[in-house]
Design goal:
single chain; Rossmann fold; 10 helices; Neuraminidase; alpha+beta; 8-stranded mixed beta sheet; 17% helix; 612 residues
């Protein structure tokens, strides 16, 4: 039964948003007593120094818009992050001492840049970063003195095409970076460069349509090997490559299904921590390189952080940032031999009893199997329903603790989040099916999800709402325009409404990503950009629309939303746009998120009330 909106300060759904969580944490490579954590112990997500033996956290940053990402120096003395203007993701890398002290710009002589990665060599003598500007993507290195002072950045490599993924060898003699020069798309080859001269040492490429990614150098000073993945088989699988000898071998893991990605090396270089994705469900494994032996770890279901936060810890433990649908993100320790949970390292806050998720599959309009996560309220259906699409599109929805999902189910809505075509971990063909044809198969998958929800008796046909953030916000607006007869309304967060305007106004990192997805610029592919843009279909929109957008966003800029809103109002169509003064990473401010989701809840309930 649909519940009246719970808007009091201590409503259970608001308590879930405010509960402290640990989305990621890391330990210094050469000083395991020191760590770095991102958490919302206050009213926004900030960086905290972590005293690993005691678990004590000390706040390092206090930016109004939050600090969602950071890099810890190998000696544990400094935390680095991008210092931008009100969350616009354009600025300079700075560092702050973990023991307290002044903020320091480590690239003061460079003009402001959009950044897509900063890494250190394990010895700490060098850092490397990829930044972008109007001239393309640039790879820089910075030498650090024995006292830890940064030198001037040295440009090693540049390209008009997107670069992503970055790794430095133990002492910084080599840097590895993913390059799309060969493909012009998001497919990568892996370049190994001499950091002293910029000379290309070697390139690892698996041919057209394949991609090499996820480089991690061995932790040993005498070992030039690095871990990466290749999808030449159709799914990403790990390999070992030595750029100095050009020796390359795939790890023999034929007994495992799905995609396998390397997470970390053991300190002695003898074992590798692996993560399996099969139908968006994760499992962890250890691989012994000498014995060529695979060990399955016996751990709970849920999601382990695969973008940092799951690694070999001290005392024969694996440290893992973990969550599931009813437990907020926290850091736990697993026995490094069995995978059994041994303790909670960094706890999350207490939350009200929450609703579980279950994995479901359904056929899309062309028969392709689509996976999703379903959560249901108490009682018998059909229910008003939220159909959610994740951002990216190069991302995947796994079983996570989502205060937003719980909000809807608390109020009597069914909730389904789908991994539409374009999502990661379902194989190369699945991911690439949308490249050069954005907004086509994704909408087909959304329509099929709606049909399945109705056929299963879960959703009321006239009470299904679209929602999502970033690319999910884009799909919300596009779905409302391309299939207007199917939806009761749409709630789009930090969305894209016009791809051409977005290309013109985005940060250079995102412009390169968009160029790779579309296979060309708006001038080169005008029809494709037009077909993919929600503003093209405004005249067909019939359901009410709510958009929540950041004024300082350089990933999904403001101008296209202004244009979309103006056109909707010109046509007399119901639209509400709420603006906030920050950038794309809106989740970093807790009370702001609560206000935004309360607006979404009121919007959906008002639409349903109008049907009575």
């Amino acid at each position: 039964m649909l519940q009246h909106p719970q808007t009091d300060y201590n409503a259970p759904w608001k308590q879930r948003f405010r509960a402290p969580t640990i989305p990621w944490a890391t330990i210094a490579a050469n000083e395991p007593r020191r760590g770095l954590v991102m958490t919302n112990a206050g009213d926004s997500y900030q960086l905290y120094a972590w005293d690993v033996p005691t678990g004590a956290l000390t706040q390092l940053t206090n930016r109004a818009e939050g600090v969602p990402l950071g890099v810890l120096s190998p000696d544990g003395r400094y935390a680095c992050y991008l210092d931008d203007e009100q969350g616009n993701e354009i600025g300079h890398y700075v560092r702050v001492p973990l023991q307290g002290g002044e903020l320091e710009d480590i690239t003061p002589d460079l003009p402001p840049y959009a950044a897509s990665g900063l890494v250190f060599s394990r010895s700490g003598n060098m850092a490397a970063m990829v930044v972008a500007n109007a001239d393309g993507f640039h790879l820089y290195t910075l030498d650090f003195s024995a006292e830890g002072r940064p030198g001037a950045p040295r440009k090693l490599y540049q390209s008009k095409r997107i670069m992503r993924g970055l790794a430095l060898s133990h002492d910084g003699e080599m840097v590895a970076v993913g390059s799309s020069e060969r493909s012009g798309s998001l497919d990568m080859s892996l370049l190994a460069l001499d950091t002293a001269t910029g000379r290309q040492i070697a390139e690892l490429w698996d041919g057209p349509e394949s991609s090499i990614e996820s480089a991690i150098f061995s932790p040993l000073a005498s070992d030039a090997r690095l871990l990466a993945t290749t999808n030449h088989s159709g799914v990403h699988r790990p390999l070992l490559w030595n750029p100095l000898t050009d020796e390359c071998r795939d790890l023999p893991l034929d007994e495992l299904q799905g995609e396998i990605r390397p997470l970390d090396w053991s300190a002695d270089g003898g074992r590798i921590l692996l993560m399996q994705f099969h139908q968006a469900v994760q499992r962890l494994y250890l691989y012994d390189l000498e014995r060529q032996q695979l060990l399955s770890l016996n751990h709970s279901n849920g999601t382990f952080s695969y973008l940092g936060g799951t690694f070999f810890g001290p005392e024969n433990e694996i440290f893992a940032v973990w969550q599931d649908a009813i437990h907020p993100s926290q850091m736990i320790a697993l026995d490094a031999e069995t995978g059994e949970r041994t303790r909670t390292v960094l706890a999350a806050g207490e939350v009200p009893v929450s609703h579980p998720w279950r994995s479901i599959t359904f056929p899309s309009t062309d028969g392709q199997t689509i996976q999703g996560w379903l959560s249901l309220p108490e009682g018998e259906g059909p229910f008003p329903t939220i159909l959610h699409t994740h951002g990216g599109p190069t991302a995947v929805m796994t079983e996570v603790f989502s205060p937003a999902n719980q909000l809807w189910v608390d109020h009597g809505f069914a909730f389904l989040s789908i991994n539409y075509r374009g999502s990661l971990t379902f194989g190369r063909e699945f991911e690439k099916q949308i490249w050069g044809d954005l907004g086509h198969m994704e909408i087909e998958d959304m329509v099929a999800a709606r049909d399945w929800l109705v056929q299963q008796g879960i959703a009321k046909p006239d009470q299904i709402f679209l929602t999502g953030w970033s690319y999910g916000g884009y799909l919300t607006l596009l779905g409302l325009g391309k299939r207007p007869d199917l939806w009761a309304g749409g709630m789009a967060g930090i969305a894209i409404a016009d791809w051409t305007m977005s290309y013109e106004d985005s940060a250079d990192t995102l412009r390169g990503y968009q160029l790779a997805l579309f296979g060309g610029t708006p001038e080169e592919k005008p029809d494709l950009y037009r077909r993919a843009s929600p503003i093209t279909y405004v005249e067909q929109v019939s359901a009410p629309v709510l958009i929540i957008q950041g004024r300082n966003d350089t990933r999904t800029p403001a101008r296209p939303i202004h244009a979309y809103e103006a056109r909707m109002r010109e046509l007399g169509k119901p639209i509400e746009v709420q603006w906030f003064d920050a950038g794309h990473l809106a989740f970093t401010r807790i009370e702001q998120s609560i206000d935004q989701y309360e607006s979404m809840l009121r919007f959906a309930c008002n639409v349903l009330d109008s049907q009575r």
